[in-house]
Amino acid sequence: MNIEKYYEIKKQLPATTRLIAVSKTKPAEDIQLLYNEGQRLFGENKAQEMKAKHEVLPQDIQWHFIGHLQTNKIKYIAPFVTMIHSIDSESLLVEVNKLAEKNQRVIPCLLQFHIAEESTKFGFLLDECRAMLQGDVFPTLHNVKICGVMGMATFTEDMEQVRREFHQLHDIFQSLKTEFFAGNEEFKEISMGMTDDYPIAIEEGSTFIRVGSAIFGARNYQK
Ligand SMILES: *Cc1c(COP(=O)(O)O)cnc(C)c1O
Q1: Cβ of 8: how many Cβ atoms within 10 Å?
Q2: Pocket test for ligand 1, best of 45, 149, 165 (most atoms within 8 A of CB)
């Protein structure tokens, strides 16, 4: 745990960018320590792990789900999750909507885009997403609220490439804003930037950076 680094990152944040402390694989005790410093936004990528931590930690923590979400796991987080960053298909959005309705909630969601070179990363392509937003199903989903976009850059030393990919995500955000969410003040988030690339993400207009290892230390297993 690196509290100094935490404050260093916080100091670099413009007023329009918020820090999500990515606590995946780390124990609840570590989260409590950062909570005691004032941090309230935490990110997890496994539904059961997030649920377990939610149950033992302070109730005013805002939990951001950032991992690939399987439809049979939505039920664990639907009652309390603050935002799901990883909507990458219409079928997933339909299922999130169902569970949100069951819990009498509207769940804020981000549309995840595939901006990296690696084919292993998840996310929509822009035209695929447009098709969903223009389709017949999307207007019937009253228990989800689309608040913006999310993406992960390629894992590379080439920071110019990373910058191009973040720039591309910003362009995608602008296109969707113009085409589908004009006048919708809730469509405003761009979730991008991690330990190795958050300064570039901030420069490219990120509103949520998701930083884990810089704050909590290296993870034993990477996921
Ligand atoms: C793990 C993870 C992060 C944080 O990664 P670090 O490099 O440890 O900062 C951010 N976003 C997603 C989607 C992740 O899975």
Answers
A1: 12
A2: 45
Element containing residue 170 per DSSP (H, E): helix 159-180
pTM score, two decimals?
A: 0.96
Provide the CATH number for the domain formed by 3-216 in this structure. Answer: 3.20.20.10
Contact, 188 vs 83, CB < 8 A?
A: no
Distance (Å) from CA 25 to ligand 1 centroid? 11
Burial zone of 127 (CB within 10 Å; 0-12 exposed, 13-18 middle, 19+ buried): exposed
Structure token pair of residue 126 = 């822009």
Count of alpha carbons within 13 angstroms of residue 66, beta-carbon side: 26
pLDDT, tens digit, 9 for 90 and up, residues 99-135: 999 999 999 999 999 998 877 778 999 999 999 999 9
Mutating to test ligand 1, I would choose from 25, 30, 66 the residue with most ligand atoms within 8 A of its C-beta, which is 66
